[in-house]
Specification:
Elements (H helix, E strand, L loop, with lengths): L1 H17 L10 E10 L6 E10 L4 E2 L2 E3 L4 E8 L1 E5 L6 E4 L3 E4 L4 E2 L1 E4 L6 E10 L6 E3 L2
Antiparallel strand pairs: 1-2, 2-11, 3-10, 4-9, 4-12, 5-8, 5-11, 6-7, 6-10
């Protein structure tokens, strides 16, 4: 069991090193891995946090996340316009949050302001062996 914990921690460390949603980078968007840890009481799952900074007018291209990913998104500052799947576009302001269920698409994710920056904290519960958290939609 201890070996499994060590391997899980190693996978989590590798995940944070490769978990940047770099493939989905858009104009005026910077994603920075912030935290990764295997969840000890849920074998095969990890918790990964990514901070996404949007410059004024910045946006992410349409994307999907790892099929196993449940995502909790919290707006740290500014305002983020988001759309999950075919749901309505909505603007979330600092202190508000939303979530994405596994298999969701994220066609809209952008700073709602053309003049002020915005920051989002995205927390993923994901299969530990998922290496790419974000994939752009072509």
């Amino acid at each position: 069991m201890k070996l499994r914990s060590i391997l899980g921690a190693a996978w989590a460390a590798a995940a944070i090193a490769t978990a940047t949603p770099a493939a989905a980078h858009g104009v005026g968007e910077k994603a920075t891995p912030h935290f990764a840890q295997a969840i000890p009481n849920i074998p095969g799952k990890s918790l990964i946090a990514v901070v996404v900074d949007y410059a004024p007018g910045g946006a992410s291209p349409s994307h999907v996340h790892a099929k196993s990913a449940f995502i909790f998104a919290y707006v740290v500052s500014g305002a983020i316009e988001s759309q999950v799947n075919d749901g309505p576009k909505r603007v979330y302001r600092a202190g508000e949050s939303f979530y994405e269920t596994p298999g969701s698409s994220h066609p809209v994710s952008r700073n709602a302001s053309k003049t002020k920056p915005a920051k989002l904290l995205a927390v993923f519960v994901v299969d530990t062996d998922d290496k790419q958290l974000t994939t752009p939609v072509k």
